[in-house]
Specification:
The chain has about 220 residues and is α+β, with helices and mostly antiparallel strands. Helices cover about 40% and strands about 35% of the residues. It has one domain (about 25-215): 3-Layer(aba) Sandwich (Protein Transport Mog1p, Chain A). A hairpin with a 4-residue loop joins strand 6 (about 140-150) and strand 7 (about 155-165).
């Protein structure tokens, strides 16, 4: 028994070291697994409360899973690296194949897609919702545009600035839109920085992460 316990302990250690641990969520009758990227884990302690408040501020999407950088959570400070898995509320009951989604996204002119993603009205609504949830003035600014497309997902990326009474911070975000088990999902990966180099770094990780999600399901 002791020998088997040691073997299991080694197995779990290897899973943790390789980032093979998986979280999951249930959506409209289906369970979807999400392999946790190396160094990421589900919110703990007070970070759970913040994740819930952040999800409540987005009334356009249902946030299905939140992953934060484990080391940043352990430090007790702000989390600069995090990932959100969402589905548009209007698409919860819809089904589509990946090919259908990618074809539809490819048919949308970039200018119209950019406007639909993060125009001034959307930014204003995001700020108003966040202000209600957090009880303070919050405003969003930024520009997210289509940046890539492959057989796994349609990718959008850019910068987003959050302004509050205490100051402002800018980070990068990449949104990978795909379907898994017929469900339309977005994998939103955030990181610090404000330039094309940082966006390229986050895009590379987002591509790897979205492929891992697809393979796990």
């Amino acid at each position: 028994m002791r020998r088997y316990g040691a073997v299991l302990g080694i197995a779990f250690a290897l899973m943790s070291a390789s980032g093979a641990e998986a979280a999951s969520f249930r959506l409209a009758g289906d369970t979807i697994a999400v392999p946790e990227p190396q160094g990421f884990c589900e919110p703990q302690g007070a970070y759970i409360d913040f994740a819930q408040a952040l999800a409540a501020a987005d009334n356009k999407n249902l946030t299905l899973l939140t992953l934060y950088n484990c080391a940043e959570m352990t430090s007790g400070g702000a989390v600069a690296h995090y990932a959100l898995v969402k589905t548009p509320t209007a698409a919860i009951t819809q089904r589509a194949t990946r090919d259908e989604l990618l074809k539809a996204m490819g048919d949308i002119p970039k200018s119209e897609l950019t406007t639909a993603l993060l125009n001034e009205q959307v930014q204003k609504e995001m700020g108003e919702n966040a202000s209600k949830v957090f009880g303070r003035n919050v405003a969003f600014a930024g520009k997210i545009v289509p940046i890539d497309k492959d057989e796994a997902a349609f990718y959008m990326g850019g910068l987003i600035t959050v302004k509050t009474n205490s100051g402002e911070s800018t980070g990068v975000v990449v949104v990978a839109m795909t379907t898994i088990k017929g469900h339309i999902l977005t994998y939103n990966l955030y990181g610090p920085g404000g330039g094309t180099t940082e966006i390229a770094t986050v895009l590379k990780q987002a591509k790897s992460d979205i492929r891992s999600m697809i393979a796990a399901n």
